[in-house]
Amino acid sequence: MADSDPDPQRFRDLMVDSEPGFAEVMICVFDIQRHETRTYRTLCDRPESTVAELAEELDRDRSNVNRSLSTLREKGLAERGRRLLDGGGHVYQYTATPLPEAKELMHETLDEWTAYVHSRIDEFGDEALE
User: Fold this and answer.
1) Which residues contact 77 (CB under 8 A, 6 or more apart)?
2) Domain Transcription regulator TrmB N-terminal: where (predicted)?
3) Digits of tens for pLDDT over the chain (130 positions)?
């Protein structure tokens, strides 16, 4: 996995859930928090949002929204752009990775993890029984 290995407990939880929802799958596959899935979904509805706009919409502190956005960007689920302000300076705007791309990223991430687990299984020898 590129960033870190997902929490195995989350995969167990996902497997026993007969109908996991979008948020549960994102949490498990990307090893993120529920508030980060909320931030992603809000970005899908409100592309090119600023941290201040997202903080207001999500009713969260700006520093927490910033951390969520950093995580989403690290996972490939959001992008940051810069908009110049009329009076000088700039503001960052964030846009979610489109859902079809995010779903493909979910598949790729899960496939990488599955390949890793298969390779670990293949490495087990008689000493694993001791």
Assistant:
1) 30, 40, 96, 97, 102, 105
2) 29-83
3) 444 555 666 666 666 666 888 998 899 889 999 999 999 999 999 999 999 999 999 999 999 999 999 999 999 999 999 999 888 899 999 999 999 999 999 999 989 988 988 988 888 876 766 6
Sketch the domain layout of the chain as residue ranges. 8-102
pTM above 0.85, yes or no: no
* Strand ranges in 25-107 using DSSP code E only, listed in sequence order: 78-84, 90-96
Q: Is 28 exposed, middle or buried (0-12, 13-18, 19+ CB in 10 A)?
A: buried
CATH of domain 8-102: 1.10.10.10
